[in-house]
Amino acid sequence: MRRKITARRKTTASLGLSAALVAATFVATGLAPSAAAEPRSDSGATSKALASPGLLDAMERDLGLSPAAARERLADERQAVKTERAARKAAGSAYAGSWFDAESGKLTVALTGRQAAGEVRDAGADVEIVKHSAATLDAAKKRVDKLKAPDNVASWRVDAKANRLVVDVVRGHRADNDVSTFLRKARATAGAPVQVGTVPAGPSTFAAGTVGGDPYYTGNVRCSIGFSVQGGFVTAGHCGKAGAGVRGWDNSTIGTFQGSSFPDNDYAWVSVGNGWWTVPVVLGWGTIPDRLVKGSSEMPVGTSICRSGSTTKWHCGNLLAKNETVNYSDGTIVHQLTKTSVCAEGGDSGGSFISGDQAQGVTSGGWGNCSSGGETWFQPVNEILQRYGLRLHTA
Predict the structure, then answer these.
(1) What sign has the CA pseudo-torsion 272, 275, 276, 277?
(2) How many helical (H) and strand (E) elements, i.e. helices and strands, does the chain have?
(3) Which of 133, 224, 228, 238 is the catalytic position?
(4) Rounded to whole angstroms, how far apart are CA atoms 33 and 21?
(5) What is the pLDDT of residue 214?
(6) Residue 49 has what pLDDT?
(7) What integer pLDDT is reported at residue 240 of this predicted model?
(8) C-beta contacts of 2-7 below 8 A and 24+ residues apart
(9) Does domain 205-388 have CATH number 3.40.630.30?
(10) What pTM was computed for the model?
(11) Is 180 a catalytic residue?
């Protein structure tokens, strides 16, 4: 969202939305389910146009890629989005998930039978034959979602590559009685294979004090804008409840939370007025040029993704998993989040996850920091658009 022009601060046509996790005297938790609004086509853009020097520098810093390797990966990932759409349609009920392999630059689609394998390969994907369909595993996860999780069970998800459910437990706590009980119930309830993994720490939402940067405020809470929509912007639900007033960086009134869902989901939208307006931009913080938003095509697991936030600015990583249920450290559970290897810190809540010029989601929470590393979850943007009947503001 673009700021008002005042004597204290000026904006240009390229200035865009910044993202920040909640900043406040309280720490909230949450994730959210994803649905899909129809994404806008992005066929006119090229990987060359997206590969700005700043983005290439960020991918070298965070992913260890040379500029040439980063350009090649961006082109491969763009093709993988198109391939995934065609392959999933060809697979039908045999579809069991997909993932992108950065080394080969190819998308693999898992199938429960060979009948559609030829059509899927014709679409440009590699094929792997597995036992359980995506529909079967998604249903199994929904049954596990009904269980009450103890603190040291961090999250659970469907892992398409492993063709099973994966439950992540905080390291050193697998033998705890309550954790063992949860795992036993999960295996009995799922009706599908369950694998146990470990994570260094439990997740939490990223809260921080009301310090400088590019925030918006509601009460004592500081958060960042996610993406402009027609009439306002979307952000994280734990940033404020419906009806709460929102102030800008200069403490002037922006608008009001028109809808908010947390816990279970972690999304919200805020109306904009009072001399404020929206633009289809994500702030690059001087690391890269501000990013124009041209659509919301969802990227496959395994592709690269970047995040903008007012505390830690611009960082990149990999998309690790989708439809993950997260159990935040205060016991709040959020469903259908997307997991990434991108770091984040307090004050980054609600901020933008973007791939190229395609909006992906708003920051919910995670663990770790941008000094030693960590993982972060976001609420997919298409679900938010569908839930509130919003239209993404695109360039």
Answers:
(1) positive
(2) 7, 22
(3) 238
(4) 19
(5) 64
(6) 53
(7) 94
(8) 2/276, 2/277, 2/278, 2/279, 2/281, 3/248, 3/249, 3/250, 3/276, 4/248, 4/250, 4/252, 4/275, 4/276, 6/250
(9) no
(10) 0.79
(11) no
228 is catalytic: no
* Cα angle: 176, vertex 180, 183; to 5 degrees: 145
Alpha helices by DSSP H, listed for the chain, are 47-50, 53-63, 67-91, 117-122, 134-145, 177-190, 381-388
Tell me whether residue 238 is one of the annotated catalytic residues: yes
**Domain extents for the chain?**
205-388
State the Cα–Cα distance between residues 157 and 340, nearest whole angstrom: 13
- 3-state SS, residue 378: strand
Q: Convert 77-106 into a string of H (helix), E (strand) and C (coil).
A: HHHHHHHHHHHHHHHHHHEEEEEEECCCCE
What is the Cβ-side half-sphere exposure of residue 63, based on CA atoms within 13 angstroms?
A: 29
CA–CA dist 44, 77 (Å, integer):
15
> What pLDDT does residue 39 have?
36
- Identify whether the C-beta of residue 23 lies closer than 8 Å to the C-beta of residue 210: yes
Tokens of 239: 């940033």
Tokens in use for 16? Answer: 């865009």
pLDDT under 50 in the chain at which residues?
1-47, 208-213
Nearest Cα neighbor of 349 from 172, 223, 234, 254 is 223
Contact 58, 316 (CB under 8 A): yes
**Sequence-ordered list of residues with C-beta below 8 angstroms from that of 36, at least 6 positions apart, any chain:** 298, 380, 382, 383, 386
Residue 173: how many other CB atoms lie within 10 Å: 17
Residues 349, 352, 355, 364: which is the catalytic one? 349
Task: Give the pairing of strands 164-170 and 194-199.
Answer: parallel
| Candidate list 266, 290, 348, 357, residue with the active-site label | 266
What is the full DSSP assignment across 234-252? EE-GGG--TT-EEE-TTS-
